[in-house]
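B., you asked whether I could sanity-check this one before it goes into the benchmark set. Here's the sequence:
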Amino acid sequence: MYRAKQGHRTVDLEAAGLNCSSPARDVSKSPNVIMRTPQLVLFAALLVLGSAPVYGAAPGSVTGVVRDSSGVPQIGAEVELLRPDMTVIASVYTNGKGQFKIPSVLPGRYAVKALGTMFLPALREDVRVRTSTVVNLTLNTLYEVMQWLPSEPRDGNSQPDDWKWTLRSAANRPLLRWLEDGPLVVVSDGAGGSPRLKARLVATGQQGAFGESGERVAVGVEETPVNSRELLAQVDFDPGSDAGLESMLGFRQDLGFAGSVESVAALAIHPEIDAAGSEGLDEAAMRSWETINLGDEFEAEAGSMQLLARFTQNSPNTIVTALPFASVAWRNGDSSIRYRMASSVPASQNSEDTDAQAWLPRVSLRDGQLQLEHGLHQEIGWDRRTGNSDLAVLVFADKIDNPVMEAIERHAGGNSAAASLGSQLLYDPTSGLVRVAGPRYSTAGMLVTAEHKLPHGNQVRVSYANGDALVLGASSQTNGQPIGLTQLLASARARHSQTCSISLSGTLEGTGTRWRATYRWQPEATVSSVASFSQNAADPYLNVQLRQPIRLRHDGASSFEALLNLRNLLAQGYTPYILSDGSMLVFAQDQRGISGGLAFTF
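And here's what the prediction gave me:
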């Protein structure tokens, strides 16, 4: 019996009246064959037509016109033909009338993307090509599309959750989103459709984080009440006690071509943290800023952070201050020059923009008084961004007050350094971590960063920086003799150091696992970061982040995600000191930590 495939269907030739294994016979006299002749002719025609796409289909073409939002044809815009996995097959440019043509395209499903100077990329997905297919694309500026986005993401390698980066526009509601480890694109979501409320529930357990160790539950919501406004809120708490409550509320008002006004309020309540007989650390911050656009070439940003920090019981002092910041940028094609001034040190790169800790400066203790880590940072930088690679170079000058030095307490014989020397240490009994304020110092240096997109949606980032970082005296390490805490802290000083880092990120094909691995080397004797004000710095030493979608439905849709975050996986950079009371403090730029859990988006 012989079988032939017609598309996805298998046809039994014997059932159709063709027995290829039987002896030859005179079919001209067979009435059955004569009656079946029309059916055989029709079957043969269908077989040929159905097999054409599989066995050598004729190539087609993709043509169209690229215009801006006002209908003006765009000359010299780049148009790319992409596979469903977003890899580029062909690339052409539009002519003097904004027209393009991509010839010799085999039938199938593709995506077409247009890119133009000073425009956001436009993407049309699920384009079915048979013969000649017409795809017209419209390029929009950022001002026409954006409704909510953090003004400057701290790390280009970071892979935020889709719900947090969903943007909407007033006109026909296209979505602006990040492709996984890919470029920023605009895709159509159809006309109409009101903004929807999105929420995310995350349950995690973590260890090795100051003020955040233990079981945590975070609930976040995003809402767009009107087209020009956006609200984002999150609450993070410990379900087993009244400790560790954190919350954040963000608001943005779009001002059209003029720019935007944004505000973020963050609150952290940690009743378990104590020092010098005081208990319960409360922090609150209000960060407000305005972005001003002067045409497509100039952008300015200015704002300030109002901060309050105090102990709820027996508080020796309360910190109330304002920390201003500003930046101005001039863009010329793919290149830009930026000046930035800041006075608050950025939070750890482990913190998401929706975490309260990402918006709160760090505090520590000195002589029983709360101290705020802040300073004056100034930088001048140049960067060049193309489709597949970015390069940035900047020089900076910093003055840092009360830099935070963090250590883990290892006490022996029931003694606790935090209990006996509480006037010097801010202590978190849950994680066993302590914080102390270091001396003021000034530094200057440079930072060079390069990024490149690799095949299959992967990305690599390397950076180098030099400048000053804090080191401690080494007397207790050299001779093994105990040292007093006051003497140890007095030995802290700034030393010129260098640091380099590499970051890799991507998505595993088949499983959909999103991963990110970073490694930052810095001399192990240093207990603070080089270039502390850097917005794109990787965390110290080896760090791994994994996000695994959990498929619960046959259509592949996933609302659950397993999370795993490993910090300082190899436990590097530890500097131990034996104190006079027999306890031990192990200082490090970043303590080893782990967090994992489940996230549900609905």
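One thing to flag: The first strand starts at residue 3 and ends at 6. Otherwise nothing jumped out at me.
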